[in-house]
């Protein structure tokens, strides 16, 4: 390994990268655009109250009290439907699935102690319906308790993990950093390795003292630098545009180093094993796309079905993103160390295979 | 057929003996032997698929032969490739490079890889690239790209250069510019192994030529030797009618061929035959035009030996 040659190759490659602009766009601008889009879609979206139609067929003081108790939760926003309307057809004609109907005789039943039901309309597949029925049940219990003349003994004190509440953006930033750790080196190296083979550039280089390991190491250095720059950009956008909570610890650095090492080698391996530029692109996508979506890039892996979660655990990118989440969001360094260990072993194997199978010259 | 006279020499830059290489069922190189002297331009001439590139890649240490031996500057190119590469310069066929360095940057890059203090401007001047020294490689014309290849092959100041079809696909002007560079290399005393499928190029540049076809060397020697050894002799060509052709056949006592349109060709065995032929033409009293003698060119011999006219070969290229 000769540092002068690695530096020379690094210089030519990085200048070419900047001049071609396309690579720079995908490495630096694209992740920022993704963060802006996903951040905008999900930021604050969950704090909006759920809209619920209701029909108060009773119209008494008691039923009005029930309605204001529902409103008082601040979790749902009630929209009154006139009693002259057929409630179910009204919901359908407004493409709404959530509704509450207070039947006539609600007040007299409440006072006389006769059983009466508040009807809750909903769609079992929708998360808002679960919220509406839960909220309604809570208010009903409160009324029942009041009717029986009792008072609450057991209360609930909501408390979030960490001091502040974790928001979607807090998962999104590590996820998208992982996304760019994966995509920039993978797409580039798959393409480069097959294209250089076609254009005989590897042969050309093999006629110089540059060795293939030096060439590969120069690419790895380049993508480490690129990853660190895109990490800084994404973190800045996440923090300043969306108020992401990120702990900047030196623990992040190993992941920004091992990630590119792993995916430069993997890209090289895929490109080297393919016969043509076209087939390498297909194989490259086959390897890249499942990782891109199933490793916790756009949403936490824990929200996925169990079988997909076990699949995610065999994807190398999962350990990058899980590790970044552990250090940037949870401060769980023990778990991060496990992720790092897995990544180091994987990188060593894949780097070794890439150097082994990547050929400057043919027999 | 005569063997090349490499054996007579003491200093051989390249020595090849019974070299063979097959790709599956295709015998790309089929037992060839030749030697290249120090300081000469040696050309492997042949149609596409003749085995020229395979041969040259074996000599560069990029491929391993199946059988036979190759010695380049006294080393085994496959086993000692890494050491050999510091002493040779190469332009592979259809030279391509990274898209975005400029020629100047490319030369500096190679100098850093070789760990030499190269005269960057001198090299750019030698390959006539000073004017385009700051243009990205991808925006250079085909001829200029080829010159970048030449420039890179010179960075380590090599004794021996391998130029694999350095002018294929270039326009005539660019081709001549590359020729000029190659002549300059020869003047500096460097040895050049040049492959080409352009006969003109071999005739212009090469001290000695080996004609290759289907993995074998059909003949070799200086262009003049090849012409002498394989020529069918001198001919007198004249434009005239079929009547004139018939008249000459009867009266000139020389073999006559008529191309069916207007070209009559008489084979000349002795110098005096020219006089007799011209006299017979004059005596016929028939119309004639454009009288000239013609010797077989390397191309005529190539066509005869390889069995395919050059235009067809170029169309395949």
For the structure shown, list the relevant keywords:
A: abc type-2 transporter like fold, 14 helices, B: alpha/beta, Rossmann fold, Alpha-Beta Plaits, 6-stranded mixed β-sheet, 4-stranded antiparallel β-sheet, 12 helices, disordered C terminus
Assigned CATH superfamily of the domain at 5-87 and 158-229 in chain B: P-loop containing nucleotide triphosphate hydrolases
Span from first to last CA of chain B?
28 Å
Task: Detail the poorly predicted runs of chain B.
Answer: 1-9, 310-317
Low-confidence segments of chain A, given as residue ranges, are none
Tally of separate helices of chain A: 14
Instruction: Please give the domain count of chain A.
Output: 2
Number of DSSP strands of chain B?
13
Quaternary structure state of the chains depicted:
heterodimer
The string of secondary-structure elements of chain B, in order, is EEEHEHEHHHEHEHEEHEHEEHEHH
Brief synopsis:
The complex is a heterodimer of chains A (363) and B (317). With 363 residues, chain A is mainly alpha-helical.
Describe the structure.
- The complex is a heterodimer of chains A (363) and B (317).
- With 363 residues, chain A is mainly alpha-helical.
- Chain A folds into two domains: 3-43 and 167-357, no CATH class; 49-147, abc type-2 transporter like fold, CATH 3.40.1710.
- Chain A is built from 14 helices and four strands.
- Chain A has helices at residues 3-20, 22-42, 61-72, 87-93, 106-112, 127-147, 168-198, 201-206, 212-242, 252-273, 277-294, 306-312, 316-330, 333-357, and strands at 50-56, 76-80, 99-102, 119-121.
- The two termini of chain A are 24 Å apart.
- The mean pLDDT of chain A is 87.
- Chain B has helices at residues 52-59, 81-84, 103-114, 120-126, 142-154, 172-187, 199-205, 223-230, 242-251, 273-284, 298-306, 310-316, and strands at residues 12-23, 26-37, 41-45, 67-72, 88-91, 160-164, 191-196, 208-213, 216-221, 234-240, 256-258, 263-268, 288-294.
- Chain B is 36% helix and 27% strand.
- The longest helix of chain B has 16 residues, at 172-187.
- Among the domains of chain B are: 5-87 and 158-229, Rossmann fold; 233-295, Alpha-Beta Plaits.
- In chain B, helix 3 (103-114) crosses helix 4 (120-126), helix 5 packs parallel to helix 6 (172-187) and helix 9 crosses helix 10.
- The two termini of chain B are 28 Å apart.
- Chain B is built from twelve helices and 13 strands.
- The interface between A and B is medium-sized, with 26 and 32 residues.
């Amino acid at each position: 390994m000769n540092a002068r040659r690695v530096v020379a190759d690094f210089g030519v490659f990085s200048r070419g990268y900047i001049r071609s602009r396309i690579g720079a766009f995908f490495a630096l601008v694209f992740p920022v655009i993704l963060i802006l889009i996903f951040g905008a879609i999900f930021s604050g979206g969950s704090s909006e109250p759920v809209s619920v139609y209701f029909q108060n067929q009773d119209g008494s003081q008691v039923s009005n009290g029930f309605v204001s108790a529902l409103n008082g939760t601040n979790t749902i926003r009630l929209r009154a439907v006139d009693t002259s309307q057929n409630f179910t057809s009204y919901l359908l004609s407004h493409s709404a699935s959530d509704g509450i109907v207070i039947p006539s005789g609600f007040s007299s039943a409440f006072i006389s102690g006769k059983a009466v039901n508040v009807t809750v309309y909903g769609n079992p597949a929708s998360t808002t319906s679960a919220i509406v029925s839960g909220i309604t049940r809570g208010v009903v219990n409160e009324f029942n308790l009041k009717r029986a003349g009792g008072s609450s003994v057991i209360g609930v004190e909501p408390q979030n993990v960490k001091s502040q509440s974790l928001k979607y953006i807090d998962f999104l930033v590590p996820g998208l950093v992982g996304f760019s750790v994966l995509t920039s080196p993978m797409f580039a190296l798959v393409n480069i390795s097959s294209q250089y083979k076609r254009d005989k550039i590897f042969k050309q280089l093999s006629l110089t003292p540059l060795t293939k390991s030096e060439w590969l190491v120069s690419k790895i250095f380049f993508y480490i630098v690129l990853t660190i720059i895109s990490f800084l950009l994404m973190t800045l956008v996440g923090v300043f545009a969306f108020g992401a909570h990120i702990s900047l610890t030196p623990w992040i650095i190993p992941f920004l180093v091992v990630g590119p090492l792993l995916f430069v080698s993997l890209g090289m391996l895929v490109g080297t094993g393919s016969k043509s530029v076209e087939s390498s692109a297909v194989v490259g996508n086959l390897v890249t796309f499942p990782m891109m979506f199933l490793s916790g890039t756009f949403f936490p892996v824990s929200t996925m079905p169990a079988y997909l979660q076990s699949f995610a655990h065999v994807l190398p990118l999962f350990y990058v993103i899980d590790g970044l989440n552990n250090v940037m969001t949870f401060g769980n360094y023990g778990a991060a160390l496990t992720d790092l260990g897995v990544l180091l072993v994987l990188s060593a194997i894949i780097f070794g295979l890439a150097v082994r199978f990547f050929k400057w010259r043919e027999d | 057929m005569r063997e090349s006279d490499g054996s007579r020499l003491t200093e051989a830059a390249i020595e090849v003996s019974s070299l063979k290489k097959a790709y599956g069922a295709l015998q790309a190189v089929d037992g060839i032997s030749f030697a290249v002297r120090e300081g000469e331009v040696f050309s492997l001439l042949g149609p596409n698929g003749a085995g020229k590139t395979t041969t040259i890649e074996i000599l560069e240490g990029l491929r391993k032969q199946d059988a036979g031996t190759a010695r380049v500057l006294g080393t085994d190119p496959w086993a000692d490739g890494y050491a050999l590469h510091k002493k040779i310069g190469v332009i592979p066929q259809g030279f391509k490079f990274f898209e975005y360095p400029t020629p100047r940057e490319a030369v500096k890059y190679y100098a850093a890889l070789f760990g030499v203090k190269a005269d960057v401007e001198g090299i750019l001047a030698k390959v006539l690239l000073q004017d385009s020294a700051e243009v990205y490689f991808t925006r250079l014309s085909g001829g200029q790209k080829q010159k970048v290849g030449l420039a890179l092959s010179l960075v380590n100041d090599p004794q021996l250069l391998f130029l694999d079809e350095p002018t294929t696909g270039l326009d005539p002007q660019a081709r001549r510019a590359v020729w000029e560079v190659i002549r300059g290399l020869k003047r500096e005393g460097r040895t050049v192994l040049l492959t080409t499928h352009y006969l003109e190029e071999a005739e212009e540049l090469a001290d000695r030529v080996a004609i290759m076809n289907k993995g074998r060397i059909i003949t070799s020697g200086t262009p003049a030797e090849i012409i002498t050894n394989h020529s069918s002799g001198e001919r007198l060509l004249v434009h005239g009618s079929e009547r004139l052709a018939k008249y000459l056949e009867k009266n000139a006592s020389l073999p006559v061929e008529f191309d069916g349109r207007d070209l009559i060709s008489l084979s000349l065995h002795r110098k005096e035959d020219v006089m007799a032929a011209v006299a017979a033409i004059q005596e016929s009293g028939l119309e004639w035009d454009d009288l000239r003698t013609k010797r077989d060119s390397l191309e005529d011999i190539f066509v005869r030996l390889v069995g395919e006219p050059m235009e067809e070969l170029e169309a395949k290229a």
